[in-house]
Design brief:
Layout (H helix, E strand, L loop, with lengths): L2 H12 L11 H7 L10 E5 L5 H8 L3 E6 L2 H14 L3 E5 L5 H4 L8 E7 L4 H6 L4 E12 L20 H5 L4 E11 L5 E10 L7
Parallel strand pairs: 1-2, 1-4, 2-3, 4-5
Antiparallel strand pairs: 5-7, 6-7
């Protein structure tokens, strides 16, 4: 992203954007208790985390989370919330474009879960398996192109076409995939592509 993009997001968060959206993604909430992890303290990375509603949700459930975003304003809001509850959230300011370098420094951290929620960067999702431990999971959600009247970005550049997210996660074992209208916990109707995948375990023997 450009400096103009960073400034745009900083301005939005300074103006109070998304302050009322404290609930986690319904997809994450549904799957969080179903994920099998091997370590006593599971590790997650939340990409384009914004002010951290999903990172905080995981941390409250005992996860250690690296939360990554381009906006220092959003991360400051997240950091303050995490510190107020003494939650293990590590905030990382980073531009996630281009996808080829977005994960530099994270590749060997062996995350049990990678999150990419409503951030439209298909190549980034395709690169995420290299940070996920064998048996670990990816949960991704992107706005889907639709002719329906829905919440979310109006510019189709920030939406995916049917099948695009599924193709990006092709390296993973597919546990769940859905495309269509979804009602958010706050009552908004959104059109989403949703994916839950699992990193294949290393063969033994």
């Amino acid at each position: 992203m450009s400096q103009a993009d960073r400034d745009k997001w900083n301005a939005r968060y300074l103006a109070g954007a998304y302050e009322e959206r404290t609930h986690p993604s319904a997809l994450l909430e549904h799957w969080a208790g179903r994920l099998q992890v091997t370590g006593l303290v599971p590790k997650a990375i939340d990409l384009a985390c914004g002010s951290g509603r999903n990172a905080l949700f995981l941390a409250r459930r005992g996860w250690r989370v690296d939360a990554v975003d381009i906006s220092p304003v959003a991360l400051a809001r997240l950091r303050a919330a995490a510190e107020a509850e003494n939650l293990p959230v590590n905030c990382v300011e980073r531009d996630l474009e281009p996808a080829s370098s977005a994960l530099d420094g994270f590749a060997n951290r062996n995350y049990d879960l990678a999150l990419s929620m409503r951030y439209t960067d298909v190549p980034l999702v395709g690169a995420l398996p290299r940070v996920i431990t064998p048996g670990g999971h990816l949960i991704a959600e992107m706005h889907l192109i639709t002719e329906k009247t829905v919440a979310g970005p109006r510019n189709p550049r920030f939406r995916v076409t049917p099948g695009e997210l599924r193709k990006a996660g092709a390296a993973l074992e597919l546990l769940y995939y859905h495309e269509g209208l979804v009602t958010d916990p706050d009552g908004r109707t959104v059109a989403l592509a949703q994916l839950v995948g699992r990193q294949p375990r290393t063969p033994t023997g």
